[in-house]
Amino acid sequence: MRDQYHQQLDEVLTELERMTGIVSTAVRRSTSALLTADLGTAEEVIAADSQLDLAGEVVEEKIFDLMALQAPVAVELRMLVAALRMVADLERMGDLAAHVAKITRMRYPAAAIPVELHGLIEDMGRVAQRMVDQAGEVIKTRDVSVAQRIESTDDEMDTLRSSQFRQMMDAAWPYGVEVAVDLALLGRYYERIADHAVSMAQRIIFLVTGEMPASQ
Amino acid sequence: MRDQYHQQLDEVLTELERMTGIVSTAVRRSTSALLTADLGTAEEVIAADSQLDLAGEVVEEKIFDLMALQAPVAVELRMLVAALRMVADLERMGDLAAHVAKITRMRYPAAAIPVELHGLIEDMGRVAQRMVDQAGEVIKTRDVSVAQRIESTDDEMDTLRSSQFRQMMDAAWPYGVEVAVDLALLGRYYERIADHAVSMAQRIIFLVTGEMPASQ
């Protein structure tokens, strides 16, 4: 009975790792579509989000089965709730990548972001994707030190957001209001993806060790 | 045993209703502070958010106790997970109200929002607060029809967001980039508060009826 429980829990973790890979792809492709005004790719990212939600529902069902069938003890219930919250994190990260793609669609055939600002968006997309990949790596390796690394990568995101605000608030900002509004929202979406990656890392530590990290 | 379970579940619902009241106050006060550039009130809203998080942790513990001690059957476990998700919704709504207050703090002693745009922010704050209040009412009355009303109130929020974007994208927008960036983020915060109110309403329907509404 206990062996079966742990085997099913491993299956859940494998599914979560797979979802993390899907989110990583969505972040990469939505950023690429944004910078190349590629409507087709943007539409694909938006459509793929429903697939991610479906995958999430399947994992949730597995977790509910584990909760109901295997009579888990108290700490195991908390671990299963942590797994449910990771599903919610991943679904939300997928929504946010789709939001990035929707800005591409809204501005098409124009490009939302002027070439001079591509570096900033590339950096934000790259940092967000790295954090998602690190979360996947923690699930795969159960290595708590990688989870801690996610938090220092998150500091890079904060630095990028500050730099973004400084540019937009400069009196000499040459790109007008529309670009500033798009950039503010895009920055928010990438920041939220990063926040969810940090939350995931903390939940995985709990799932693996049964103890919450001190920072939460 | 069953009576005790239902009594403790009622206590959880009462706590959730109380948290909803705290969030409603935070939304009202953060909007008021924004429109009057009232740093003191903004700081109070930011400080009160930690209190809300503490209240949330206490409710979570009660829910985990119910999960572990009362050996709930499958549908009850799902209801308890729905209650946990409502705690997370409420904590997040509190964060978002604090984000509104932080914009007040960032721009102080200047006002973030020009007088001509006060009506729009008032409307967004009022609709968001009404949705939070309606969520509290559903918890209190277990009246499914009120839950459905939240979704039509959410349509008002969508209309306000569209009107906001139209104004900002107008070539004659006179308030510059800084106001546009603040307004875009504020609109996003109010919209997310509204989204969480809709999610809460759906979860309460499930908690009360044991069935998910068709829209989810």
UniProtKB/TrEMBL annotation, chains A, B:
GO CC, alphabetical: cytoplasm
Superkingdom of origin organism: Bacteria
InterPro entries noted in UniProt: PhoU (IPR028366), PhoU-like_sf (IPR038078), PhoU_dom (IPR026022)
Keyword set, alphabetical order: Cytoplasm, Phosphate transport, Transport
Localization in the cell: Cytoplasm
Family annotation (Gene3D superfamilies): Phosphate transport system protein phou homolog 2, domain 2
Residue span, PhoU domain: 16-103, 121-204
GO biological process terms on file: intracellular phosphate ion homeostasis; negative regulation of phosphate metabolic process; phosphate ion transport
Pfam family name, one: PhoU
UniProt xrefs under PANTHER family: PHOSPHATE-SPECIFIC TRANSPORT SYSTEM ACCESSORY PROTEIN PHOU
Subunit annotation: Homodimer.
Entry similarity comment: Belongs to the PhoU family.
Function in brief: Plays a role in the regulation of phosphate uptake.
The name this protein goes by in its record: Phosphate-specific transport system accessory protein PhoU
Species of the source: Kribbella italica
